[in-house]
Predict the structure of Fructose-bisphosphate aldolase.
Amino acid sequence: MPLTGTGAIVATAARAGHGVGAFNVIQLEHAQAIIAGAEQAGAPVVLQISENAARYHGALAPIAKASLAEAERATVAVSVHLDHATSTELVREAVDLGFGSVMFDASAKDYEDNLAATADVVARCHAAGCWVEAELGEVGGKDGVHAPGARTDPAEAAAFVAATGVDALAVAVGTSHAMLTRDASLDFDLIAALRAAVPVPLVLHGSSGVADEDLTAAVQHGMTKVNIATHLNHVFTTAVRDALTADMRLVDTRRYLGPARAATAEEVARLLRILNALNASQSHPDRK
Ligand code: G3H
Ligand code: ZN
């Protein structure tokens, strides 16, 4: 299946009232696990690469090209998305590499500066056919500097979308980035109010801290794109740790990364079934 745009995946899900799983890629094995999980569930998926992940690799292109190549050989719809970009240069590079979507994150700026910077990026990206997600109301916990109590105001969100022309909006509704426990307390009334006020799909960041039943409820109240990173790293790293602990003589990296990739794929499939309201024997309606 050819590489798909995040915009098309998200629009289809929003119409159907489903969620879209957007999972972060750091190593090649993440991309492979996320796609394998999507194929197990028969659901579309978003591979996202953050500015921090690009910085870790020293450049965006190597991990991006590997992810794009994996997406192109998938049997389900897969998009490749730039996550939490604060650099307009990185946004431009992603567009040039063939990303169909980016998240431009100017949420650390005050409202007027966020609006102006985002509107500029949207104009440039739209001219290149690229879909843009932005953020309003800091999603708590990122880099330890955002308050977990941050909330997005629905009227301000509607005005922000109208003024910038963004295609999707990340909102603060009670999640916090990088949680290791799944006990975040979501404000479902606020999600519903944002859904009613904002004409574009809503994005839930920091979803690692959200319990299974609250992921379902978040989608039912109006969330569409659901970003999960830390939870998958937890699954991945636990499998690596188990494999290394079980055999102190193990040195072949494939012997511990392989089980970690398989465990992560299982968890991606499980999460995608929750987000797409599928039971274990069903596949996604788009595949019938
Ligand atoms: O943009 C990515 C996410 O918001 C992931 O957050 O690591 O808390 O799941 P998380
Ligand atoms: Zn995020």
User: Anything to note?
Assistant: The CA atoms of residues 182 and 211 lie 5 Å apart. The mean pLDDT is 94.
